[in-house]
Every structure is written in C-alpha cells, then in structure tokens.
Amino acid sequence: MKCLCLILLCVLPLVTTAQEIYPKGCVPWVIHDPIPDIDNKKPTVLMLHNLSTNDLWITHPVKSPGAQAGFSSLLQMGKWSALVLNRAHKSFLLQCIESKPGHEQQISCADVLAICQWPNSKIPEDKTGVFWAGENMDLSPLKAYIERQGFVLDPQ
Fold first, then answer.
1. Which residues contact 54 (CB under 8 A, 6 or more apart)?
2. What does pTM read for this prediction?
3. CB 44: neighbour CB atoms within 10 A?
C-alpha cells in the first residue's frame, strides 16, 4: 500500500502539468501546423502554455533580420507566457525549440504548445509593437502581473 501511494505521489504532478486548461474568457486556438502562423486583424493578447515535460524556447524567426529582429523566450514545463501583438500581422510565425541538457531541437508546436486569445482585451496606449507582457509564470500570477501593467483581459 505504501508503494502504491508513493507511485501515485510521483506520477500525479506529471499528469497535472500536461493538462490543457484555458483561463475563462481566453479562446483556444487550434494549432495544426508544426510552426503556427498567426494572422491577427487587430491588437491582441495571446497566452501560451507549455504542455510538454521539457523546457521550450519560443522563437519568432524573421527572413530578413534588418530593422525587425526576431526573438526567443524560455517557457518551462507547465508555465505560461503572454505575448502582445499590438499591430496587425498577415503572418507572424512562432517556432518551438525543445531544450534538454546538452541538446536542443526544433519540434512541432502543435505537439507541445497551447495558445489562447483574449478577443476583447484592452492594451494600454503606451504599449506598442510585439512584446512579452509576462513570461514563464504560473497562470494566476501571470494574469495578475499583466493586469497590474494596465491590461484588461476580459472586459465585461
């Protein structure tokens, strides 16, 4: 009996970190492609959730990196980040790089990443461009953090 309890205590945290649970009001995006191509018509806040058991680097590659640089951000297992797209994009690519000690490789975002969008979010006027509003946090602290910066995620 003690052995069974020990096994359950070890396995339960792994099961709960992989659950795909979205915050109320955040509309899930279906990711079909290995590299999601985001097409937004108006400014928006996206929430990204690492569903894998490994750390991920979320990158935005650019074809000609002149004035517009790409970016990368660490997203640990089970953590959330908030990405703000404060201008329209016809094509905004995200790549997922799996990070293990001594090894990194590009993998399909469809297998490891959940994305949802706050459709009616209000972005502060002084916040422009594309940027991370909050990175690599648990969901509740992330929401509180970005709301303290003046974002309104779900106005009702």
1. 77, 98, 99, 100, 112
2. 0.79
3. 19
